[in-house]
């Protein structure tokens, strides 16, 4: 029996990167999982099937678009209908865009706020009634070191991540007496497609080479001079789902190689 046997976890943005690591960690602890996100259908199906075969649990994919509140509610309903409950919700989907404020496209601002912040609000709303009814729940939001400190040229991302830290605290207070904990995890840099994709824009915005961006911007931020791994972030999320973590709520847990200690 794993710590999550008989439970169901929904992880938004879990077709790659940190989200996929969360889904695999929860499955390793016995949870059935609803994965979500974009990508090539064959790649999504391969990862879904691999979760089932590696961990002997059920995994299904929800194509819900985190830009659309109705689809987020449908994703939670799909999880409840398929498995009988949604016990763990991880609001993790995220996108990034790097540009000076005066050139920042309005549609990019709107999309980043919607996907990185508002989708968590909609997910939490949808999952609360079932969690309250069952008297147990774990809600985890992927924030970022950028929920605590800023970097130039990432205005929307920094604003959304500061926002999700505030949403986390508020939801934690509202749900504390229902045995539902709400926390966020704030990773430093993790080498995923999200980070890789922002390198050309950072090169342009700061006039640097790729190597300079990696060494003098990304790794420079982290005193350990190492990337965090997606599996390390997922292990912390799994800890938050256990009984030992029942008194951790409203927290913003940093895993950033010392970045925000500086
Ligand atoms: P990633 O690009 O590997 O994964 C992002 C996921 O979000 C993918 O599954 C993608 O399909 C999904 N997604 C994007 N738009 C979506 C939409 N409209 N609807 C549904 N799904 C959508 O990136 P990642 O680095 O694993 O990022 C995951 C989370 O971690 C994000 O919230 C990000 O801000 C946060 N984070 C990442 C880092 C890092 O260094 N990689 C650091 C701190 C926080």
UniProtKB/TrEMBL annotation:
GO molecular function: 3-hydroxybutyrate dehydrogenase activity
UniProt keyword annotations, A-Z: Oxidoreductase
A GO biological process held by the record: monocarboxylic acid metabolic process
InterPro entries: 3-OHbutyrate_DH, NAD(P)-bd_dom_sf, Sc_DH/Rdtase_CS, SDR, SDR_fam
UniProt KW Oxidoreductase keyword: yes
Nuclease is among the record's keywords: no
Enzyme Commission number(s) of this protein: 1.1.1.30
One Pfam family it belongs to: adh_short_C2
Gene3D superfamilies assigned to the protein according to its UniProt record, in alphabetical order: NAD(P)-binding Rossmann-like Domain
Top-level taxon in the UniProt lineage: Bacteria
Top class in the EC scheme: oxidoreductase
Protein name: 3-hydroxybutyrate dehydrogenase
Organism the protein comes from: Rhodopseudomonas rhenobacensis
